[in-house]
Amino acid sequence: MDNEKIKEMLLDIASTDLDFTVTQSGKESTRVNGLYKPDTHEIILHNRNFKTDSELVYTSIHEYTHHLIAEEQIALNGSSYMYNAKVHNEAFWAKFHSLLKIAEEKKYYSIDIDSFPELKELTENIQKNYIEANGKIMQEFGKLLAKAHALCQKANIRYEDYVDRILCLPRNSARDITRVGRVQDVNPAIGFDNMKMLSAIKKPEQRAEAQEQIMAGESPVTVRSLMKQKAQAPVDQKTKLEKEKNRLAKTIAQLQQRLDFVEESLAQL
Predict the structure, then answer these.
(1) Which tens digit of pLDDT belongs to each residue from 83-117?
(2) DSSP three-state, residue 3
(3) Which of 228, 189, 188 is nearest to 206 (CA)?
């Protein structure tokens, strides 16, 4: 794929009003497969790192995700805003995975496990005998911790001390495991980490929706991001800017207070 074809593909996956360029460096890099330059809106791909077009597409979409988020931030904060392309937070990964899904639907990208029988067999082994099996164990573990809690109360033993010094289990872990044990409508096949995430969702219908998305192949970070979006009330731009103004004013006041103290201290030396 040449640079123009890559750009056409990216625009077909998601449109943008902020122009950008694609450059294949013709080089191999041991540090990164590609990068995004927010000052020039340039996507650079170290194409000698890739053996297939699929690998090239994956990295192209990764860097294009940076561009799309930069565009959103510029729209919110003004043209002088400088996006940090080194940030890979939850919002980034959720958007990246959503773009990968579109790329798959449009036949630009595929993760074809079925073509490699050994990998397919190994994947099924991992999913069934490790991810699902561990989920079942942790679900039962949670039920036992709940029972231990009740027995500690009956024996007038402080449960926190029992967890800390008898089981030698971090309290947060004990809490999460117990919560997983209480929620019976979560499928262990999604794995313990996803079970933890779903057990924190109070409404059964929302929990079922999230589980369905994971079972359908959505990444956990994408599901978590969608759940957060639904839980948050929409905030208009004026309210958002007013909150930022108040936060900045508070920070400036604190810094001014510190500056006054430093200047007074210097004057006394």
Answers:
(1) 999 999 999 999 999 999 999 999 999 999 999 99
(2) helix
(3) 228
pLDDT single digits (tens) 47-85? 999 999 999 999 999 999 999 999 999 998 888 889 999
> Facing residues of 24 across strands?
45
Q: What contacts 167, CB < 8 A, 6 or more positions away?
A: 174
Q: What is the pTM of this model?
A: 0.79
Residue corresponding to tokens 């029992």: 162
Q: Which two tokens stand for residue 127?
A: 């999913």
Task: Give the full edge-to-edge strand order of the sheet including 21-24.
Answer: 21-24, 42-45, 34-37
Classify strands 42-45 and 21-24 as parallel, antiparallel or unpaired: parallel
- Cβ atoms of 65 and 95 within 8 Å: the answer is yes
Residues 6+ apart with CB under 8 A from 236: none
Q: Which of 231, 187, 191 is nearest to 211 (CA)?
A: 187
Quick count: other Cβ atoms within 10 Å of Cβ 232? 8
